[in-house]
Write a structure and sequence with these properties.
The chain is α/β, with parallel strands linked by helices and 340 residues long. It folds into two domains: 190 residues, Vaccinia Virus protein VP39 (Rossmann fold, 3-Layer(aba) Sandwich); 114 residues, no CATH class. 35% of the residues lie in helices and 16% in strands. It binds S-adenosylmethionine. S-adenosylmethionine binds next to helix 2.
């Protein structure tokens, strides 16, 4: 069984969930709805997901949306049927080449594993198109494929490049996802630009964890995005990326502060929690934070009094974990200026 946290994802908040929880307990207490508007893997929403709460999840990238939908939306699914399909997928041996093996075989995966991945993805599409699985079941199967691919990829955890020496011959083994529908009853999942979504929703707590530097998530996870979308686009360069022009995030560009201000000024919520680390201008230029502390404070103060909470963390950098003087920071605002 795959748990939602069993994926490698840059900037995931797995290790600071108790820290976020502590802030919520001390500053807020009881609440009904939480919107995790830059969800990524969705671990933050999942952590606070109970049957009497509403968790709203959202991400710009489609592969994240698929997995958020698999884990957190309330639609029913037939677990027995899916387990049989997964067992069958696991036992396959595929000899023919396909879109995935031609482009990614002998690079991110061994040729044989790549053949299997491409074949399985096509099968999931066929099962759905022929009405043999519903949308939730399709999302569960794609997510299971993505989680199992992530475990054996010939990379350091993202897909900007693959490791050029030995390609791991690890078997692709899919598994069922650990989903508790009982807790999902009131949840909603979206695949929108956060600045558009914020205009359509209301919640008690708005949690924001945007990208904080110029590194685009669509570049780092292009391969998983390609598999989830399955439009078989042309791919380019050594890393075999597709055209991601439409997937670039404003939060990794120079006017990130403007987007952030627009989002915060349009938020219909009682509390704002904002994660943004303090790399400042210490690292290389790609790691530099896109929104200055001054701009963060200016924007947040327009909605109420700001408190800042800090915790030391281990920096994840190209596969090496090193202890630096980095702090994970959470800005907290009890909204007192309601603009709606
Ligand atoms: C730091 S990660 C979030 C990590 C997440 N909290 C977790 O624990 O897995 C930032 C996420 O924001 C998404 N993103 C970037 N720009 C966005 C936008 N304009 N609207 C919605 N999501 C966006 C990225 O795809 C990425 O998944």
């Amino acid at each position: 069984m795959y748990k939602i946290s069993q994926r490698r994802y840059l900037g995931n908040k797995n290790s600071i969930l108790p820290f976020i929880d502590e802030i919520i307990q001390n500053e807020i207490g009881e609440f009904y709805s939480l919107c995790d508007i830059f969800s990524g893997t969705g671990v933050v929403g999942e952590y606070f997901n109970t049957s009497d709460r509403k968790i709203i999840s959202n991400d710009l990238l489609y592969h994240n949306y698929i997995s958020l939908s698999a884990y957190l939306n309330p639609e029913p699914f037939d677990e027995q049927k899916l387990t049989k399909i997964i067992d069958n997928f696991n036992s396959l041996e595929i000899n023919e080449d396909n879109y995935f093996s031609i482009n990614f075989g002998d690079r991110y995966y061994s040729k044989n594993t790549a053949k299997k991945i491409g074949y399985i993805r096509e099968e999931i599409k066929e099962l759905f198109v022929n009405g043999l699985i519903n949308r939730k079941e399709k999302d569960i199967l794609i997510t299971s494929l993505i989680y199992s691919m992530d475990k054996i990829a010939n990379t350091v955890g993202h897909y900007d490049a693959y490791i050029k020496k030995d390609i791991r011959k690890n078997e692709l083994t899919m598994g069922m996802l650990n989903i508790d529908l009982q807790r999902n009853q009131h949840n909603k999942v979206y695949n929108k630009d956060a600045n558009l979504l914020v205009r359509d929703i209301e919640c008690d707590i708005l949690y924001l964890d945007p990208p904080y530097n110029s590194r685009q998530y669509c570049d780092a996870y292009h391969l998983l995005e390609n598999v989830a979308l399955w439009q078989k686009p042309e791919v380019f360069g050594v890393a075999k990326k597709f055209d991601r022009t439409k997937l670039k995030s404003d939060y990794s560009k120079s006017d990130a502060a403007k987007s952030f201000d627009d989002l915060i000024q349009n938020a219909k919520c009682k509390y704002i929690l904002f994660s943004y680390n303090n790399m400042g201008n210490k690292g290389n230029s790609r790691s530099n934070a896109k929104i200055s502390d001054e701009d963060i404070m200016k924007t947040l103060q327009k909605r109420g009094k700001v408190k800042v909470f800090e915790k030391e963390y281990k920096e994840f950098n190209a596969g090496n974990t090193k202890v630096g003087d980095n702090k994970e920071r959470v800005f907290f605002v009890k909204v007192s200026k309601f603009l709606y």
